[in-house]
Write a structure and sequence with these properties.
By secondary structure, the chain is of the alpha/beta class. About 40% of the residues lie in helices and about 20% in strands. It has a seven-stranded mixed beta sheet with strand order 16-17-18-15-14-20-21, sandwiched between helices. A six-stranded mixed beta sheet has the order 11-10-9-12-13-23, with helices on both faces. Strands 7-8-24 form a three-stranded antiparallel beta sheet. Helix 2 runs antiparallel to helix 4, helix 2 crosses helix 6 and helix 3 packs across helix 4. The structure holds nicotinamide-adenine-dinucleotide. The site of nicotinamide-adenine-dinucleotide has 31 residues, from helix 7 and helix 8.
Length: about 500
């Protein structure tokens, strides 16, 4: 296997870094293993302090020119990047599926189009964003959104290209330059994105990719004095380490972290809808931050709901994610597979019962974990409070609205909550009391790029999406002009 290229699903992927508009090698590599069959698919260059230094230096050098470019020209280049993504959508989908094991059909239909949208949407928004001009006691006041500098972006493996571009799009549109550290468990599409961006005319140094592990490449990036923003998507423990590193340089952070979201089903809910929503949670083998894995169902509905969920869940097809018939694939890596096994083993030992699945899929072997539904978990136990990030649902019952809300809000997370009810007044009342950055009422996973997105509590810090992204990726400046020539002063009020 070459150490500079890998041929993955008939696509040639460069496995080196992309720094300052050229490919850069490291002395060491790490092995990228596909979850589908646990076979090595690439040797990827393992960056460290030196590569991070070079990437930040390149991004800093490119910053002045990119920031000074009229927004219309920046937007045109970003639209060309989006066109390039569309043109290579099928290749990107095939490589991502081989790399992280998520469904090919999802990448083709939904994920890769959204990747392109992440550039197009923020290109459009940057062009249209208003710089309001107000009058303050006769003075003219102008608010502007200035690019902040070099943005460091660190991303996880569960939706690598989608999550990276959801930050790269607004960061570049606002006039910043970027250093991306992709996940070591699924690093390949970031490299293809570098090729696409280069071909689309993005100037050298504006977008840089440093491959490597969290400790090797991620850590030096987070503590680098040359970065101006740090956007991290990943787990809570890593976020703690990163926050400490970033604190030394007082770098503003955006954290999108884990979740343990509830699916709260009232006795007036549409049962067909609730059954569909529950089984939908097995999507991406449950490796979805927003997943509603804690099913809370009103006690009067429980038996019928469970019967129907089990009937539907049994028809879920597990297998190779490249097969269009597959609904649930493998977990991303051996360590993650063992982590998920451990959660379920401990839950069963602690009194929970598996009414579906409950362990690895022996027929498929490898990293395939059966879609699992657990009941009778002990209140307050680990399986009800910690993020598993696998195809594991728990079902609990509640007796009335107050108890349902209390159970929904009973974890340290607050990323999303889904509420199913046929009563519009209850929908208003309960949604207002749920502790979550996003609440879905009688629907799930409806995401708009213009909406604020982020979590409460341990699910994150800050919001991105629409203008909220520019609030984070820009230095917002207020300039006040005297009405009388160039005199200053505001009567003592500052
Ligand atoms: P992770 O925290 O292990 O790794 C995420 C990234 O951080 C990787 O690129 C990794 O290399 C890097 N990293 C690890 N240690 C580092 C360090 N010391 N310094 C700098 N970087 C470091 O998370 P993961 O296992 O890759 O992803 C799963 C987690 O991501 C889950 O908790 C999931 O909920 C969360 N997630 C959240 C969202 C969201 O939008 N809220 C979206 C997707 C995933």
């Amino acid at each position: 296997m070459s150490v500079d290229y890998a041929d993955v699903e008939d696509v040639r992927v460069d496995t080196r870094h992309w720094i300052g508009g050229r490919r850069v090698s490291s002395d060491t590599t790490f092995t990228d293993i596909s979850p589908i069959d646990e076979q090595p698919i690439a040797q990827v260059h393992a960056g460290g302090e030196a590569e991070v230094d070079a990437a930040v230096a390149a991004a800093r050098e490119a910053f002045a020119g990119w920031a000074a470019l009229p927004v219309k020209q920046r937007a045109e280049i970003l639209r060309a990047v989006a066109d390039g993504i569309d043109a290579r959508r099928d290749e990107l989908a095939r490589v991502e599926t081989r790399d992280n094991g998520s469904l090919l059909r999802s990448h083709q239909r939904g994920v890769m189009p959204r990747v392109a949208m992440n550039f197009r949407y923020f290109a459009d928004l940057a062009e249209s964003i208003a710089h309001p001009i107000d009058e303050v006691r006769g003075h003219r006041q102008r608010v502007s959104f200035d690019p902040a500098g070099v943005v460091a972006i660190i991303t996880p493996w569960n939706a690598p290209l989608m999550l990276a571009t959801w930050r790269i799009g607004p960061a570049l549109a606002a006039g910043n330059t970027v250093v991306l550290k992709p996940p070591e468990w699924a690093p390949l599409t970031a490299s293809l994105l570098a090729d696409i961006a280069h071909e689309a005319g993005l100037p050298a140094g504006v977008f840089n990719v440093v491959q490597g592990t969290g400790a090797g490449a991620g850590a030096p990036l987070t503590r680098h004095p040359g970065i101006s923003r740090l956007s991290f998507t990943g787990s809570v423990p890593t976020a703690g380490v990163i926050a400490e590193a970033a604190a030394k340089n007082i770098v503003p952070l955006s954290f999108e972290l884990g979740g343990k979201s509830p699916l709260l089903i009232f006795d007036d809910a549409d049962l067909d809808l609730t059954v569909d929503l529950a089984v939908e949670q097995f999507d991406n083998a449950g490796q979805v931050c927003l997943g509603a894995f804690r099913v809370l169902v009103h006690e009067s509905l429980h038996d019928e709901f469970l019967d129907r969920v089990l009937a539907k869940a049994k028809s879920v097809v597990q297998g190779d994610p490249r097969d269009p018939a597959t609904d649930v694939s493998a977990l991303v890596s051996r360590p993650h597979f063992e982590r998920v096994c451990g959660f379920v083993e401990r839950a069963l030992a602690d009194g929970a019962r598996a009414v579906l699945g409950g362990g690895p899929n022996e027929d498929l072997g490898g990293l395939y974990f059966r879609p699992t539904i657990l009941v009778d978990a002990r209140p307050g136990s680990e399986i009800l409070t910690e993020e598993v990030f696998g195809p594991v649902l728990t079902i609990q019952t509640f007796a009335d609205e107050d108890e349902g809300i209390a159970m929904a809000n009973s974890t340290r997370f607050g990323l999303a909550a889904t509420l199913v009810t046929g009563d519009p007044e209850r929908a208003e009342r309960v949604s207002a009391l749920l502790n979550a950055g996003t609440v879905w009422v009688n629907c799930f996973f409806v995401r708009d790029l213009g909406a604020p997105f982020g979590g409460n509590g341990k699910s994150g810090i800050g919001r991105e999406g629409g203008p909220w992204s520019f609030d984070f990726y820009c230095d917002v400046k207020n300039t006040v002009f005297s009405p009388n020539g160039w005199t200053t002063g505001n009567g003592g009020n500052s």
